[in-house]
Design a protein that fits this description.
heterodimer; A: 494 residues; alpha/beta; globular; B: 72 residues; mainly beta; seven-stranded antiparallel beta sheet; 0% helix; binds iron/sulfur cluster
């Protein structure tokens, strides 16, 4: 299918909106837009960070998911208690595939689920005593845990438990940080507020812990990688590039990260932010309080990687700048070979994305490196600043959809007929059953890493094996297949 | 009166960030912006207007300041 014009895209949006009742239509219309690169302020064309409509399907998560699942969960040497009923933690356990090194259950705890498993009596009489006991138990069973965080699930806020008091008391008793996090699921419209609440608790309970302690030997080349959750090893594939450039990565936030790395972050020279949505606040805070500047970067696909490496190097001296060029050169043959291999197989293929965080805009460059085109993109929980950054990356007249509903996304796909959809696990099986190639772009479909040059090789292979998989030709039962000659005619008209 | 974090962007413009709302916008104009004083009415690029009592000497950015909404 040829690219759609502005009018066609607009007409498509109108058509999809038609089925809604008047009020819902008015609301949803604000969240769907035709991209226009000339727009400076996304606010004028698309609304975001609003409560989802009742009655439609949204794939958003909750504040607890944003704090426990995204920001705090990957900090590997701490125990993160899912405080409340068992389900919130159990059903999300290890789902994000934040890789880490360490001995699980001894000095690292990333894939384990700790919960206070609330019962009726805890709701009626309060759970503070249980929390107290639970923290003591953790200390007995896992003495190597460097700290504990208490991640509140919905009931905690509803029954008014005083987790702050318990945390303070236990922190003193154990001489370890015990961090109460008020990330009850009902706060905010999506997981986005959970990220922010998690940032707030890091600010209050972690960042200042090494103030006045100068024992850490710093260098002029210290950086921290912020907002890389090491999905399938992403942060590792990023880190090696920075290290080859001559920089020292002091901290990884938070994939494969530790408590002490976070505590040392205010001492670095530059914070590098990958996921802006989930970690921009804490970076601003460090800039204001400790004078640590920050910058955004993008390690998806060779074009963006080279751009980012140069931009990062520009913040340092000539030695680092020369090293950056060397790193780019070193990998050139490698990624050119990958492009030579996969581009002919993927050229011109059209992709629709619907993800969270940074990916709806950051991955575009990687697809373009392979000759593919992103024709629609959207975020689950973005704010206007995310769309400000997206408008420039997307082609004119492409589709933008915010907090898209299940129905809308299906209709868009039917009409736009992309060659590939990149979205989450909740969408995956619907589209696969519709016969559209699909990659799960939250946790890389059990693959990865996708960051860095190493990641690009895997990314290209995965996209190829999905799109060019022979199974897509077998979507129709043999007896429903048109006869030989007819099939060609159908293919030509599609 | 929300707390607003203000920082300089790479292009020199000032970024206005309301932490509580996770809202980010660029400052379009500041009523008083001289070597001695900074403040008064501040207009953002999205058209919204905010107010802060003029501060002298001007604050060093990045910093957090308390603003009032100037438009109803
Ligand atoms: S909304 Fe509440 S109950 Fe549901 S997963 Fe989140 S914290 Fe748990």
């Amino acid at each position: 299918m040829a690219a759609m014009t502005r009018e066609e895209t607009q007409a498509l949006i109108q058509e999809v909106l038609e089925v809604y009742p008047e009020k819902a239509k008015k609301d949803r219309a604000k969240h769907l837009a035709v991209n226009d690169q000339s727009v400076e302020q996304s606010k004028k064309c698309i609304t975001s960070n609003r409560k989802s409509q009742p009655g439609v399907m949204t794939v958003r998560g909750c504040a607890y998911a944003g704090s426990k699942g995204v920001v705090w969960g990957p900090i590997k040497d701490m125990v993160h208690i899912s405080h409340g009923p068992v389900g919130c933690g159990q059903y999300s356990r290890a789902g994000r595939r934040n890789y880490y090194v360490g001995m699980t259950g001894v000095n690292t705890f990333g894939t384990m689920n700790f919960t206070s498993d609330f019962q009726e009596k805890d709701i009626v009489f309060g759970g503070d005593k249980k929390l107290d006991k639970l923290i003591s138990e953790i200390e007995t069973l896992f003495p190597l845990a460097k700290g504990i965080s208490v991640q509140s699930e919905c009931p905690i806020g509803l029954i008014g438990d005083d987790i702050e008091a318990v945390s303070k008391k236990k922190s003193k008793e154990l001489s370890k940080p015990v961090v109460p996090v008020r990330c009850e699921g009902f706060r905010g419209v999506s997981q986005s507020l959970g990220h922010h609440i998690a940032n707030d608790s890091i600010r209050d309970w972690v960042i200042g812990n090494r103030d006045g302690d100068e024992s850490f030997q710093t260098t002029p080349y210290d950086v921290a990688v912020i907002g890389d959750y090491n999905i399938g090893g992403d942060a590792w594939a990023s880190r090696i590039l920075l290290e080859e450039m001559g920089l020292r990565v002091v901290a990884q936030w938070s994939g494969d990260g530790t408590l002490s790395e976070m505590e040392l972050t205010p001492k670095v020279k530059l914070n590098l932010i990958h996921c802006y949505r989930s970690m921009n606040y804490i970076s601003r805070f460090m800039e204001e309080k400790y004078g640590v500047p920050w910058m955004e970067y993008n390690f998806f696909g060779p074009t963006k990687i080279a751009e980012s490496l140069r931009a990062i190097a520009a913040r340092f001296d000539e030695k680092i700048q020369a090293n950056a060029e060397k790193v780019i050169e070193k990998y050139t043959a490698e990624y050119e070979a990958i492009i030579a291999k996969y581009r002919p197989r993927l050229e011109g293929k059209r992709v629709m994305l619907y993800v969270g965080g940074l990916r709806p805009r950051h991955i575009i460059g990687a697809y373009e490196d392979l000759g593919m085109e992103v024709v629609g993109t959207g975020y689950e929980f973005a704010h206007n600043d995310d769309y400000d950054r997206t408008v420039k990356e997307m082609g004119d007249s492409t589709l933008l959809y915010d907090d898209v509903t299940g129905y809308e996304l299906e209709e868009f796909v039917k009409r736009v007929q992309p060659d590939l959809i990149g979205s989450g696990i909740k969408e995956k099986y619907i589209f696969q059953k519709m016969g559209v190639p699909f990659r799960q772009m939250h946790s890389w479909d059990y693959s990865g890493p996708y960051h860095g040059y190493d990641g690009f090789a895997i990314f290209a292979r995965d996209m190829d094996m999905t799109i060019n998989n022979p199974c897509w030709k077998s979507m129709q039962a043999p007896w429903q297949k048109p006869a030989e000659g007819e099939a060609d005619a159908v293919a030509a008209s599609a | 009166m929300p707390n607003v974090m203000i920082r300089k962007k790479d292009d020199g413009a000032l970024l206005f960030y309301v932490a509580k709302k996770d809202m980010e916008e660029t400052i379009a104009s500041v009523e008083t912006d001289t070597a001695e004083t900074w403040g008064g009415e501040v207009e953002l690029t999205d058209g919204s207007r905010w107010y802060i009592d003029p501060i002298s000497p001007p604050p060093a950015f990045p910093t957090t300041l308390r603003f009032k909404r100037a438009d109803g």
